[in-house]
Amino acid sequence: MSPRRGGGRPPGAAGRPGRFAAWRSPSSIDSRIGLWGATSSGKTTMLAALHTAMTQQDGGDDDWILFSANEATRAFLARARAQIARREFPVPSPHEARELSLSLLRPDSAGWARRLVRRGTRRRARRAEFHITLMDVSGRMYAPATFDDQDADDRKQAGDLFRDEPEAGDAVELLVDHLARADGMVYLFDPLRELETQDSYQYLESMVERVLARAEELGRLPDGKLPHYLAVCINKIDDRRVFNAAYDGGFLSVSDSDEMLPEITREDAADLFRHLCSREMMGGAAGSGPWVRGSIERHFHPGRVRYFASSSIGFYVGSGGTFRIQDFANIEADDLGRPRIRGRLNPVNVLEPFLWLAESIRAAPTAPALESRRGGPASTGEGDGQPGHAGADVDDPLAGDDAGLGGVPGPQPRSDEADWDDSPFQTRIDEMPPPPPPPPPPPWQPR
């Protein structure tokens, strides 16, 4: 199937200017976001690419600003950006849990350009603001470890990997608690690792079991499913093996950018994930892919899961200024055979998962952590880094006649937002645009 120009993207698809224009009232929300992925899945590079993704917005009124909220985060991002400037991949995180604090700010153009004074009262500019607390850790902390006893079964225990490193064991517990209390998660699915080692499910399930147990202690499993919003990122689509799988499956579109870069819409990203997790994956055995998909569907509400096809370094664009399907790899080897970044970064769907989480959590906050059943303090939304939940319906946070898939309501209309019906998240089926006309011949030459 050939790529299609424009992609027929419905309202609210990632990449369209103004996709979060529904934010109209002053807003400042704090939230915890978990960044989840196996070793070498690209977590550190993704965080480093966030700043580049910000600078490559289209310059409209709906652009976002990203800045570090503390010195530790500034130092981490500064080091990562310096490595990228040298065309080096950021060094993976050590065996420690490093908490990062970021702020996303989008000025509201209606109040930014002017301030009205009425009856001696100055009207403040309206804006949308979102504070994110992330925990950056080594991918090894998500790894299962087989028991030393050769007669043991296939049960895994994530903490055993660090049994000889007490400080790392403490970091694992911090990570589990952070994920259990989080409002949203970004899960990086690495198709290349799955193709080579077929252990994605082991990395995912070993940590899910711990997070489920901790979430139960915090009273966050009223219906047996995790309340988190989950952004699933199919990472490394710039790699030719992943790109070819998307191309051959008909999941690629041509963006409206001047470089004519390929893109995968969020609807196609969900189909691509199912394809990669099917019984046949990129010409090889499916490995643990079907189990990964089953684990996500089993432990998360389907109405709170969205899929993105992402790449932290993006596709290579040469001197011609346009994407060439014959030469798009943005990784090359140095003199010692080590991988390095070939050209400038063109991040793909690096910022969008965080913005979707921000909008979703603001519109329908997740259930807060209650009193821990093992006697420890629990998150209440006040004074423990988990604000934004005050006033949430603790008794039945998932109740409602208009519940979406899995009994979980999606973003609901707000009484103080008259233009909420314009939100891309509220488009009804009968309001969807008609199917696009047949696509013109693809602008790319055959592979």
TrEMBL record:
- Superkingdom of this entry's organism? Bacteria
Cited SUPFAM superfamilies: P-loop containing nucleoside triphosphate hydrolases
- Disordered: annotated span: 1-21, 367-447
Q: Where is the composition biased (Low complexity)?
A: 11-21
Residue ranges, compositional bias (Pro residues)? 432-447
Q: InterPro entries recorded for this chain?
A: P-loop_NTPase
Protein name as catalogued: Uncharacterized protein
